[in-house]
Amino acid sequence: MTTPLPPHAGTAAPVHPTLRVVEHRDPAVFAARALSFLEARELENCLFLGIVQGWLDKPRSFGADDLMLTVEGDNGPVLVALRAGQNLVVTNGPRAAGEALGTHLVLGQRAIPGVTGPPDAAHVVAERWRALVGTRLRQATKMAIHRLDGLPQELSAAGRFRAAREDEVDLLTGWLVTFFDEVRLPPNPRPRAAMENSQLAGRLFVWDDGGPVAMAIWGGATPRLARVFGVYTPPARRGRGYAGACVARVCGEVRASGRRLVTLFADRVNLGATRIYRRIGFTPVCDWDHIPFETD
User: Fold this and answer.
1) Maximum mean pLDDT: which of 84-98, 153-167, 177-191
2) Which pTM value belongs to this model?
3) CA distance 241 to 207
4) Which end of the chain is more exposed for a tag (fewer CB within 10 A), N or C?
5) Quick one: angle between helices 242-256 and 271-280, nearest 10?
6) Rounded CA gap, 139 and 100, in Å?
7) Domains of the chain
8) Separation of first and last alpha carbons in the chain
9) Strand pairing of 160-163 and 204-208?
């Protein structure tokens, strides 16, 4: 279990002679410190920006086990990290900053199941954790961020696109749990609540061909961009173009909301999915790795 953090806004730990790791408890204070750094590489940091915006919109959604950290140099943050109920997520930054962060987490007894982020940065933090704790690292899941700048190219499939209904939330929650298992990513700790919120917000969609046959969600929104995620088709329904058609239409929903950029994460090993996303108009931005730790 994660050790409770102190109640004040931030705690600095001198784990490197020229760097300080600061833990923040107030999302507004964290945003004031980290947003300029994150926005400088907006697409690469789209996951961070969406999470921070969610905390700003609903401060009470920041949980006891969640983390907000900046690694500070003389002129401000050089690396940002956070945990929103799952893995630690890190930005790019100097190697020394990743090592300082890993040391800080161990000294502070912060229990984390793994690290996610740009490959170099994620592996530095994970290796530092492994060296100090002695845990083994499991095989990384290799992801990539993709971007869509213009209008999506719609794809055809039998059936129709529509918003998910309230009475379908249980079914789609099961799909979400299976999705995380299939792509070897840490599951959402509150999957039904997440799906219920997406449905109520009008951001959960299905492709319907005699009933739901694929789904996609959009969220993690900032004023400029949003992320498409949870793209899933049950195995028996695959190979018919349902997911691609659904994703293209969901991208249209994002654009209709006023956001100009759409991002999504895709498995680098799944070349079929990557080809479909490119047909829609997505182009790759950068790689991301998810590195889970062995658990007893």
Assistant:
1) 153-167
2) 0.89
3) 10
4) C
5) 40
6) 23
7) 10-137 (3.40.630), 147-288 (3.40.630.30)
8) 14
9) antiparallel
